[in-house]
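User: Before I run my own analysis I want an independent prediction to cross-check against. Here's the chain; please return only the structure tokens and, at the end, one sentence I can use as a sanity check.
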Amino acid sequence: MTTAYNPAGQYTLKVWDVEFRRAPKRTLMARIYQPQGAGPFPTLLDVHGGAWHDKDRLANERMCEAAAKSGMLVVAIDTTLSHEAPYPASVQDVNYGVRWLKAKAREWNGDASQIGVLGSSSGGHVAELVGMRPRDPRYTAIVLPEAPNTDATVAYVATRSPISDCHARYEHMVKTNRAEMVKKSKMYFDPWDSIFEANPALILERGEKVTLPPLLIMQGELDSNVPWQIQEKFAKAWRAAGGECELEIFEGCEHMWIHDPGPQTDRAHEVLKAFIARQLKAMRKAA
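Assistant: Structure tokens:
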């Protein structure tokens, strides 16, 4: 039986950092946002953006806090950056992160039976891949000795401005003369053919056998990094493949709108919480 969740909940938080894993280049850390209450709380893993090249576990701090204060255990992790290792290193980190969090959630008053993943921008791309291919041997390469039989399946995937079609997005960067973003794509997708193999939109187009957890896409209408048309096409493909996908367009918003306080940021928090509440309610009914 899954834990009840009220998206209107109000909790104080305990926030701290722990070591996530020791990667070849550096120690990756995790930030824990733990509601202070009876629990156990539904659990959410946050994956940061940064064009696969920048940022860390603090990149989505505002949204992580909003989710946690409503009564969710939220854990945001560092991932390997493209200048440290190309694809699939960061996907391996997140696949491991799901399994690691399932093993650790109880320590932090979380419910490991209903873990979801939240990804922003390039982190949304990685979150989609983990959701679609939870048992892919390329992604499960990092062993978790304390839970060797745990897999990386998730209850849902929530995203903000995800790079759902990385090749279409690359072409958009070329067309709009975004040289730095073109460079970052080439660093991550090395060899270059991996931009097609690791492309969620093309995975669906190829008809690959994948897992399709319920998916939320929150997208800025004026996003110059990932045009909303790419998301609309991807959402339709996800549904056509048999999955549930909710696409929310935020009028007048650019790629990073959620970093600024305001009505549309507040709305994004509410959309996220309501989506998660619906998924958890459906799980409770099915249990």
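Sanity check: The chain is about 35% helix and 20% strand.
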